[in-house]
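Section 3.1: Structural characterization of target chains.
Under the original work plan, the team committed to producing a structural model for every single-chain target entering the pipeline before any wet-lab resources were allocated. The record below documents one such target. The sequence was received from the expression subgroup and is listed exactly as submitted; it comprises 258 residues.
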Amino acid sequence: MPPRYEFPRLPATRYALNLLFLLRTSFVRDCQIIADYNDYPRRFDGIENVPAVGRFLLTANHYARSGLQPYHWAMIATAELAKSRRTDPHIYWVFTSEWRGRHFGPLPLPALIFRWLFSRVARVYDLVTLPITPDAVMRRAATMRKLFHLAKRGPIALTPEGTGAGVLQKPPPGSGLLLHALNRSGLPVIPLAVWEENDELVFKFGKPFDLDLPPGTPRQERDAMAQDQIMSALRKLLPQTYHGEYGTAVAETGGGSE
């Protein structure tokens, strides 16, 4: 049976109080708690590609399975990076504003519950939630303003696909434009491939690179090209089993491989 990653019970009480009363707390400290509590085998390759100081855009595949969610490995990766980024350890992770189609037993859980919960998590930890519904125009605009403000202060991290179970899939429309804008604001792209080999959790960081989009390219094409360059960089880091929709090479320009 594969390892089951969990939150420790004792800090969960403090965590619940922080959420209830919106008490700002250290994301890095709680990441270390999660990493220590889930002391399963793990390996970090290419971590020297991440600068000890300064800003960057960390783009990871959306690896997930029962018993291991993206927030588990994101916190473990943050804790590990903090060891070499002691003067600048915080990373502004971007995650979905809500879950849909979830159930508690036979009862469906309204997305509004998760929207409320995730917004409080973001405020407590100084992170960013990204609205996923097309009609959330005002909330998305506010999120973009916050995101680009934070990008001036430190590194941003996200999973371009936004969903999935580990094998690569196409990111949603518009994600390439967002990544390109963040890259143009001065954040080099660092791809992070996450997967498991037997029971070992593997993190593989690629070399920093910039997206290469020809001037004058139409908006829709820029979106697709940026997506392909990001996902191609992840493809080159992942074992073939996880290539998914990127099983054949695409838009190799921009590299960011090993």
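The chain has seven helices and nine strands.
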